Amino acid sequence: MSGRADSDDPPLDERVDAADADADADGEDGEGADDVGHEVRRARWTALGSGSVLALAGAAAAVLRLAGSAPVLVPAAYACGAAVCALAAVLGSRGRTRRALWLLIAGLMTMALGDQFD
Known about the structure:
Low-confidence stretches: none
Strand content: under 5%
Number of strands: 0
Protein backbone atom coordinates (compact mmCIF):
# COMPACT_ATOMS: atom_id res chain seq x y z
CA MET A 1 0.00 0.00 0.00
CA SER A 2 1.19 3.49 -0.73
CA GLY A 3 -0.01 5.00 2.54
CA ARG A 4 -2.00 7.68 0.74
CA ALA A 5 -5.64 8.35 1.49
CA ASP A 6 -8.29 7.67 -1.14
CA SER A 7 -8.88 11.38 -1.58
CA ASP A 8 -5.29 11.77 -2.82
CA ASP A 9 -5.82 9.33 -5.68
CA PRO A 10 -7.09 10.91 -8.87
CA PRO A 11 -10.10 9.29 -10.54
CA LEU A 12 -9.30 6.64 -13.11
CA ASP A 13 -10.32 8.96 -15.95
CA GLU A 14 -7.58 11.38 -14.98
CA ARG A 15 -5.09 8.52 -14.99
CA VAL A 16 -6.14 7.60 -18.52
CA ASP A 17 -5.84 11.24 -19.61
CA ALA A 18 -2.38 11.39 -18.05
CA ALA A 19 -1.37 8.18 -19.85
CA ASP A 20 -2.62 9.63 -23.13
CA ALA A 21 -0.68 12.84 -22.54
CA ASP A 22 2.49 10.88 -21.72
CA ALA A 23 2.10 8.77 -24.85
CA ASP A 24 1.61 11.88 -26.99
CA ALA A 25 4.63 13.58 -25.43
CA ASP A 26 6.82 10.53 -26.03
CA GLY A 27 5.66 10.19 -29.61
CA GLU A 28 4.24 6.73 -29.02
CA ASP A 29 1.03 5.47 -30.55
CA GLY A 30 -0.71 5.17 -27.17
CA GLU A 31 -1.11 1.40 -26.97
CA GLY A 32 -0.50 1.48 -23.21
CA ALA A 33 -3.23 4.07 -22.84
CA ASP A 34 -5.68 1.74 -24.60
CA ASP A 35 -4.90 -0.98 -22.08
CA VAL A 36 -5.41 1.40 -19.19
CA GLY A 37 -8.61 2.74 -20.74
CA HIS A 38 -9.95 -0.78 -21.20
CA GLU A 39 -9.20 -1.62 -17.57
CA VAL A 40 -10.87 1.60 -16.43
CA ARG A 41 -14.03 0.86 -18.40
CA ARG A 42 -14.11 -2.74 -17.18
CA ALA A 43 -13.70 -1.64 -13.54
CA ARG A 44 -16.48 0.92 -13.93
CA TRP A 45 -18.88 -1.53 -15.53
CA THR A 46 -18.09 -4.17 -12.92
CA ALA A 47 -18.72 -1.77 -10.05
CA LEU A 48 -21.89 -0.45 -11.67
CA GLY A 49 -23.24 -3.91 -12.49
CA SER A 50 -22.51 -5.59 -9.19
CA GLY A 51 -23.73 -2.59 -7.19
CA SER A 52 -26.98 -2.50 -9.17
CA VAL A 53 -27.61 -6.23 -8.84
CA LEU A 54 -26.92 -6.19 -5.10
CA ALA A 55 -29.11 -3.12 -4.61
CA LEU A 56 -31.99 -4.78 -6.44
CA ALA A 57 -31.55 -7.99 -4.47
CA GLY A 58 -31.48 -6.09 -1.17
CA ALA A 59 -34.56 -4.05 -2.10
CA ALA A 60 -36.45 -7.20 -3.10
CA ALA A 61 -35.48 -8.92 0.15
CA ALA A 62 -36.60 -5.88 2.14
CA VAL A 63 -39.99 -5.86 0.42
CA LEU A 64 -40.44 -9.62 0.92
CA ARG A 65 -39.46 -9.44 4.59
CA LEU A 66 -41.66 -6.38 5.15
CA ALA A 67 -44.67 -8.31 3.85
CA GLY A 68 -43.91 -11.25 6.16
CA SER A 69 -43.87 -11.60 9.91
CA ALA A 70 -40.21 -10.67 10.40
CA PRO A 71 -39.17 -8.07 12.99
CA VAL A 72 -38.91 -4.50 11.68
CA LEU A 73 -35.12 -4.56 12.01
CA VAL A 74 -34.80 -7.22 9.29
CA PRO A 75 -36.30 -5.29 6.34
CA ALA A 76 -34.58 -2.13 7.59
CA ALA A 77 -31.20 -3.84 7.44
CA TYR A 78 -31.89 -5.15 3.94
CA ALA A 79 -33.05 -1.70 2.80
CA CYS A 80 -30.01 0.06 4.28
CA GLY A 81 -27.68 -2.48 2.68
CA ALA A 82 -29.43 -1.97 -0.65
CA ALA A 83 -29.02 1.79 -0.34
CA VAL A 84 -25.31 1.43 0.38
CA CYS A 85 -24.90 -0.87 -2.64
CA ALA A 86 -26.78 1.63 -4.83
CA LEU A 87 -24.40 4.35 -3.66
CA ALA A 88 -21.50 2.05 -4.50
CA ALA A 89 -22.88 1.61 -8.00
CA VAL A 90 -23.03 5.38 -8.47
CA LEU A 91 -19.51 5.90 -7.17
CA GLY A 92 -18.22 3.03 -9.29
CA SER A 93 -19.73 4.49 -12.42
CA ARG A 94 -17.91 7.75 -11.70
CA GLY A 95 -14.53 6.06 -11.41
CA ARG A 96 -14.26 5.72 -7.65
CA THR A 97 -13.94 1.95 -7.83
CA ARG A 98 -11.94 1.49 -4.63
CA ARG A 99 -14.56 3.28 -2.57
CA ALA A 100 -17.28 1.42 -4.44
CA LEU A 101 -15.69 -1.91 -3.52
CA TRP A 102 -15.60 -1.03 0.17
CA LEU A 103 -19.19 0.20 0.05
CA LEU A 104 -20.28 -3.04 -1.62
CA ILE A 105 -18.64 -4.98 1.19
CA ALA A 106 -20.31 -2.78 3.82
CA GLY A 107 -23.70 -3.12 2.10
CA LEU A 108 -23.42 -6.89 1.94
CA MET A 109 -22.42 -7.07 5.59
CA THR A 110 -25.46 -4.96 6.50
CA MET A 111 -27.74 -7.26 4.54
CA ALA A 112 -26.09 -10.29 6.18
CA LEU A 113 -26.80 -8.72 9.55
CA GLY A 114 -30.46 -8.48 8.57
CA ASP A 115 -30.35 -12.13 7.61
CA GLN A 116 -28.96 -13.01 11.03
CA PHE A 117 -31.80 -11.14 12.75
CA ASP A 118 -34.35 -13.15 10.78
